[in-house]
């Protein structure tokens, strides 16, 4: 376990100790929703993680506002995003707002009910 994970676990233990049973239940519910929303977001919107695999040249292009993804791929992705009620990707291939996270969060809540 690395240092960051140890610190996170320590903070979590401290938080658990200071909570009432009702607070603890609500805290756990929110953690489950957040975790599921992250999973749903990565499944529904993988294009928002494409930048992680950018080469140095692609990263420079994105900073300049140039989308390194192909036009066909971008059009296909933006059509799917429109169907889901999410704003299209910006000119640099990055999301322009948090609407995809809103969709993922709403789906997580729906699945956990």
From TrEMBL:
Residues 1-21, 84-103 are annotated as: Disordered. Residues 1-16 have a biased composition (Basic and acidic residues). This is Uncharacterized protein. It comes from Marinobacter aromaticivorans. The lineage of its organism: Bacteria, Pseudomonadati, Pseudomonadota, Gammaproteobacteria, Pseudomonadales.
């Amino acid at each position: 376990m690395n240092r960051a994970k140890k610190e996170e676990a320590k903070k979590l233990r401290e938080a658990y100790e200071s909570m009432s049973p009702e607070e603890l239940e609500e805290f756990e519910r929110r953690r489950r929703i957040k975790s599921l929303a992250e999973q749903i977001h990565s499944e529904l919107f993988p294009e928002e993680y494409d930048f992680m695999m950018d080469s140095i040249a692609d990263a420079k292009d994105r900073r300049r506002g140039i989308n390194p993804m192909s036009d066909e791929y971008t059009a296909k992705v933006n059509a799917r995003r429109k169907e889901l009620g999410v704003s299209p990707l910006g000119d640099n291939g990055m999301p322009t707002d948090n609407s995809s996270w809103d969709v993922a969060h709403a789906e997580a809540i729906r699945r956990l009910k």
